[in-house]
Amino acid sequence: MPDDTIKALKLSNLSYQYLKYQIDTALVYGRRAVLLSQKLNYKFGLASSLNQMGLIHKYLSDFDSSLIYYKKSYYLFDSLKFDLEKASVLNRMGNIYKRYGEFNKSIDCFLNSLRIYQNLNDSIHMSDVMNNLGVLYDDMRYFDKSLEYYFLTLEMRKKINLTNNIHIIYMNIANAYDQKDDHVKAAEYYKQALYLLKDPDNKYDRLSLLHNIGSNYEETGNFKDAKSYYLKAISLGKEIGKKEILVLSLQGLGNTLIKQGDRKAGLKYLEESYHLASQIDDVIKQHMLSKNLYLAHEKNGNYEKAFSYLKEFVVFEDSIFSLEKKKQIIELEKKYESEKRQQQISILEKEKEIQQLNLARAELDSKQKKFQRNILFLTILLTLAFLLFMILENRKRKKLIKILKKQNNQIVHQQAQIVKQNNDLVEANRTKDKLFQIIAHDLRSPLVSIDSLAQLIPFWINEQDFKSLNKLSKTLEISAKNLLSLIDNLLNWALSQQGEFPFKPEKMNLAKLGKEILEIYKPIAELKKIQILCEMCNNTHVYADRNMVSAIIRNLLNNAIKYTSENGTIIIGSSIENEIAHVWVKDNGVGFAPENQEKVFKIVHGTSNGTRGETGKGLGLFFCKEFVTMNKGDIFIDSQLNKGTKITFTLPSREISQN
Fold it and tell me: How many CA atoms, within 13 angstroms, populate the side-chain half-sphere of residue 639?
C-alpha cells in the first residue's frame, strides 16, 4: 500500500481517536482524510473517512449532515464490495432514521446490516445490531419484541464471552420492564447494570442509569428518591452535554414535582424538556412531552395552552404511529422472519388511545363552552363591560395585524437574504473554478522548472563546472521557495475560508519583523541586482496576528522583486498616524495599467509575467487582502504602467474593541 494511502487511513483513525475528547480536532483530521483520499482517488479511504465524518456530525447532533455522509460512504463501500464496512454504515444509518421517527427505514437498515453480519458469521457485530433493534422497538412501544431482542443479545454475548459494556444490555432490559410496569424486575436489572458498570469515566452510561433509576422510583411512588436521582442526572447531563437523556430527565423531574403537588415547578421542567427536544429534532420525545404538557395545563386550568399542546400531540401521534407505517414495518419483518408472519398491528390499542383522545377533546370543548356561557351571562348584565371588551378586542386585532405586517416584512427580508446567499454561492463556485486553474498552472510551472534543473545537476557535476552548479542551485532554491510560498498561501487561504486559520493577534514590533523578512529576500533580490531599502520606523508597533502580517509582507516583497527589472530599487517603509500603522512596499518596476488596479486583489485577475518571465496569477495580493481585512486593516494600490507600484496596508496599533 503506497505511503499516501496509509496516511489517509491514519488521518481517519486519528479523527476517531479524538472523537470523544476533542471533537474539533477530530473534525479537522476527518476533513483532511477526506481531502487526501479525494486527491489520491483512493475510494476505500474516502468511504472510510466519509463514514467517520458521519459519526462526528452525529456527536455534534447535526443529524442531517450525518445521514448525508453515511449515504455517500455506503454507496462507495457497496461499489467496492466491502460487505463488513457496508454493514457498519447501515447500522449507523438505522440509528439516524430511528431518531427521525422513520421506523420503516430504520428497521430496513438494521435488518440488512444483520443479514450481512450473519453471512460473515460475525457474532460481535450481530449482537450490536440486535441491541439496536431492541431499542427501536422500545421507541415503538413494542416492549415484548424489544425484550426478545435484548435477551438474544445477552445470550449471544455470554456465548462468545463478550462482557465489554454488557451493563448496557441490562440497562435496556430494565428500561423495557419499567415501560411494561413490571417495576420489580426493572429494579433487579438496574442493580445488575450498576454493579457491572466499573469504569468511573463512563459518564454517559452512568447518566443513563441515574435517569432510569429515578424513573423506576417515580413509577413506584417513591417521589423523594426519584427527585434526587433526576437532579443528579440533570446535573451530569448538562456537564457532558448529552441532550437526548437530559430531555428525559427534565421530563421525569417535571412529572414527579407535579405528582408531589408542585405543579408550577413541574410545568417549568416539562416546558424546558419540550424546548430541548425541539432543538435536537427528537420527534419521539416531543410526542410524549406534548401529551404530558397538555394534561398538566388542563389540570392547571390553562385551557388555551392545554388545547395547543393537545393539537401538537395529535400531529405527532398521526405522524409516528400511522397505519401505513405499521403495515410497512410488518412487511419488512416478514422478509426477515418468515416464521413470524402472523404478527399484526395492535389496532385495538390504537383505537383505544384515539377514543381517549376524543374523550379528552370532548371534555375540553365542554369546559370551553361553559366558560363562553359565563362570559355571555356577564356580558348581558354588564353592558359597559361588554363595550370595554369590544374595545380591547379591537386593539388586539390591530396588534395582530401589526404583528402580521412585521412577519411579512421579515419574510421579504429573508427572501432577499436567500437571493444574496445564492449569488454568493455562484460567486464562490466561480472562485473555486478559477482557483483550480491557478493551482494546476502555478504548481506545474515551478515543478517543471525544478525537474529540468535537477536533470542538469549530474551534467555539471561530471563537467566539474561548480560555478554553473552554484548558479543552478540558486535558481533551484528560488523555484522551490516560489512553490513553497504558493502552497503556504493556498493552505492559509483554505484554513481562513473554513474558519480554522489560527488567528492570534498580539502587540508586536513591526519594524523588527519587517527587517527579519528583508534578510530572507535580500539574496533573491541580489540575483536580479535589485536594491532593497528599509525605511521602517523603529517604534512602529501593531496589534495583529504575527503569521498573517509576515505572510502579507512576504507576498508584497515577492511581487515587488518579480515585477522589478535588474538594477531596480524596492523600498519598504512604515509610519504611525492616529494610532494606525501605515506600511508600504514601493518599487520602480513594470507597474499596473489603471483598468487593472481594481482587479489585483481579486482571485479572478488574469495571468501576468515578471521581468524575467516569472508567472503569477495574483494569488499573493488576493491573500494579502484577506489577511489585512481579518486584522481590521485596509490595503491600497498606487501604480503607473512602466513606472512602478506602491502598495500600502494599514493595521491598528492597539487592540480594537469588538463592540
Answer: 25
Count of CB atoms situated within 10 Å of the CB of 201: 7
**How crowded is residue 137: how many other Cβ atoms within 10 Å of its Cβ?**
22
Report pLDDT digits (tens) over 455-466. Answer: 778 877 887 777
Those residues whose C-beta lies under 8 Å from the C-beta of residue 152, and which sit 6 or more positions away, are 130
| Torsion (CA) 29, 30, 35, 39 in degrees, nearest 10 | 90
d(CA 622, CA 617): 10
Residues 521/558, Cβ–Cβ less than 8 Å:
yes
Whether 502-659 and 1-81 are alike in CATH topology: the answer is no
Place of cell 393537545: 310
- Cα separation values, 611 from 239, 315, 337, 599, 642, Å: 62, 72, 78, 20, 11
Phi and psi for 88 in degrees, rounded to 5? -65, -45
Given a contact cutoff of 8 angstroms between Cβ atoms, the answer to whether 528 and 564 are in contact is yes
Question: Which residues are registered as beta bridge partners of 575?
Answer: 582
Is the entire prediction scored with pTM above 0.85?
no
Q: What is the pLDDT of residues 481-530, one digit of tens each?
A: 667 766 776 676 666 666 666 788 999 999 899 998 998 888 888 888 99
Instruction: Identify the three-state secondary structure at position 238.
Output: helix
CATH class of 502-659: alpha beta
- Mean pLDDT comparison of 450-464, 574-588, 593-607, highest-scoring range: 574-588
CB 236 within 8 A of CB 251: no
What fold is seen in the domain 1-81? 1.25.40
Domain positions in the chain are: 1-81, 282-333+350-381, 382-499, 502-659
Q: Which residues, 6+ apart, have CB-to-CB distance to 240 below 8 Å?
A: 203, 204, 207
Distance between CA atoms of residues 652 and 541, nearest Å: 9
Q: How far apart are CA 571 and CA 581, in angstroms?
A: 17
